[in-house]
Amino acid sequence: MSTVLELKNVNKAFGGVQAVHDMSFVINRGELAGLIGPNGAGKTTIFNLITGVYDVTSGDIEFKGNNINKLKTFQVISLGIARTFQNLRLFAASSVLENVMTAAQQHYKYNFFEAVSHLGRWKSKESATRKESMELLERVGLADRADQAAGTLPYGLQRRLEIARAISLKPELLLLDEPAAGMNAEEVEQLNHLITDIHKDFNLTILLIEHHMDMVMEICPHIVCMNFGAKIAEGTPEEIQSHPDVLKAYLGEEE
Ligand SMILES: Nc1ncnc2c1ncn2[C@@H]1O[C@H](COP(=O)(O)OP(=O)(O)OP(=O)(O)O)[C@@H](O)[C@H]1O
Q1: Eight-class DSSP state of 149
Q2: Which CATH number among 3.30.70.100, 3.40.630.30, 3.20.20.70, 3.40.50.300 corresponds to the domain 3-80+171-254?
Q3: Average pLDDT over every residue of 153-158
Q4: How many angstroms separate the CA atoms of 110 and 116, rounded?
Q5: Alpha carbon of 42 to those of 18, 29, 222, 231: distances in Å?
Q6: How far is the CA of 240 from the centre of ligand 1 (A)?
Q7: What pLDDT, on a 0 to 100 scale, did the predictor assign at position 88?
Q8: Percent helix, strand, coil in the chain (nearest 5)?
Q9: 128 pocket-lining for ligand 1 (C-beta < 6 Å)
Q10: Are the CB atoms for 228 and 22 separated by under 8 Å?
Q11: The pLDDT of residue 120
Q12: How large is the angle between the packed helices 121-139 and 155-168, nearest 10 degrees?
């Protein structure tokens, strides 16, 4: 089993707030792993550190054995890491298809003249991207909405589109930040199927942040639980569910 992502004693402080404290974990190739913890535990900060939005205060983040501490977001993406966001970041006025194509096109190289004239490589790449993007929309069940403005999709489908956009970047590692946020039980169930399907079909390694505990327990065989920036437990759903520190952390949240 080869390591895709490794955090080694990672710390991140925002002024006096220690958002991430001495965090270490390993995600192996092909895993579908969960990152859980109460509100403010530091989960999204971990994603922001991995994707170069923030620099670590100390510690190391490695992707396939290479240190990515100092990389900018676009460099992290080009290495094969894509993410979705807690707050949707779609182009609301653009069509569903255009949203996916815009992301997919980041892969392609053409010169200024070709881009302006829409000739040469631009033209052939554009039609290839359109075809690939439509296939992807079919895969995630959005093909019949291809021409609709993204902002007019029901919320659950907008989240689906965000996942399609991330996959269009052809990542090896996909980071999903609360993909089920705001969904009803039926939508969560459908999302469960989508995530397990794309995990398999696109040979992805996935790290998933989610507050829907039943979802994480059902689809993630490996779970890291954090609280106040630090890892408090790691293991299988059974181990996590019965871990005293996890129970205490979530009980505290309900008080
Ligand atoms: N840019 C920032 N500047 C200052 N503090 C920040 C910043 N980003 C996050 N924090 C703080 O770091 C801590 C961890 O926040 P983070 O958003 O990572 O938690 P989370 O586990 O993702 O929470 P939630 O589940 O509510 O989304 C919080 O105390 C938060 O206020």
Answers
A1: B
A2: 3.40.50.300
A3: 90
A4: 10
A5: 9, 24, 18, 10
A6: 23
A7: 77
A8: 45, 25, 30
A9: no
A10: no
A11: 62
A12: 130
